Amino acid sequence: MSLQKRDELVEHIIATQPSLRGFMRDLPTDISIGSWDLISYSFQRGFEAIWDLARADHSGLLLSPLLSLWRQSVELALKSAILEIAGNIENKPGHDLQKLFEQLCKISADGGLCNDDDLTRDVAAMIDLAQSFDPFADRFRYPSGKKGEPYEGLDVDLDELFQSHWIIVTWCEGTVVELREKFGIGSPQPFLRCESE
């Protein structure tokens, strides 16, 4: 179905040669406006959709987009959880997954949660691994670094990539739920801004 639709669009382009200047525009009624949680969820869904395609396509061409979505989804899950609990992100961690994770652990511990457990250590190890492979959030998006040096290839176990994504995102969401239910900390706060950018 998707291939047929793409073919139809190409035929339309050839037949009409449109300028397509309005293919993107502002939409002030978009339900995702200001919602870090909804944007985070949209990247989770995007990761899962591309993961399905990457499993079926053995060429490896979808690996970079898949890893980019994995990383962005994890980053947004961390930021969304921090904003949900604390209302702001401190010290401008940018795209550093380790710093974001440490901040989430600190605010959750300050809120009364114990982070001294195997699951939290496993999540920390997965985040450390991802951060070590892509410290500047560019390796999965570009073929070379800022100085032009090509990145080495990556061998990725797709099943473990999916599982790590699920574990990390679920841990972030669970932290928010547990703090809210046990201690009344954090609540939906629309239009929070991330000061880390």
Please tag this protein with its features:
globular, 197 residues, Four Helix Bundle (Hemerythrin (Met), subunit A), 6 helices, disordered C terminus
Task: Write a brief structural summary.
The protein has 197 residues and is mostly helical.
Question: How are the secondary structure elements laid out?
Answer:
Elements lengths: L1 H15 L19 H21 L6 H24 L10 H14 L7 H16 L24 H26 L14
Helix pairs in contact: 2-3, 2-6, 3-4, 3-6, 5-6
Structure description:
With 197 residues, the protein is mostly helical. The chain has one domain (32-183): Nucleotidyltransferases  domain 2 (Four Helix Bundle (Hemerythrin (Met), subunit A), Up-down Bundle), CATH 1.20.120.330. Helix content is 59%, strand content 0%. It has helices at 2-16, 36-56, 63-86, 97-110, 118-133, 158-183. Helix 2 (36-56) runs antiparallel to helix 6, helix 3 (63-86) packs parallel to helix 6 and helix 5 (118-133) packs across helix 6 (158-183).
The major β-sheet equals: none
Q: Tell the overall outline.
A: globular
Measured by DSSP, the beta-strand proportion falls in: under 5%
CATH class: Mainly Alpha
CATH superfamily: Nucleotidyltransferases  domain 2
- Kindly report the average pLDDT value: 89
Assign the CATH architecture: Up-down Bundle
N/C terminus separation: 39 Å
Q: Show unreliable segments.
A: 188-197
Number of helices: 6
**What is the CATH third-level topology name?**
Four Helix Bundle (Hemerythrin (Met), subunit A)
Q: How many β strands by DSSP?
A: 0
Q: What does the radius of gyration come to?
A: 19 Å
Secondary-structure-derived class: mainly alpha
Q: Give helix and strand order, one letter per element, not per position.
A: HHHHHH
What is the helix fraction of residues, given as a range?
A: 55-70%
How many domain regions?
A: 1
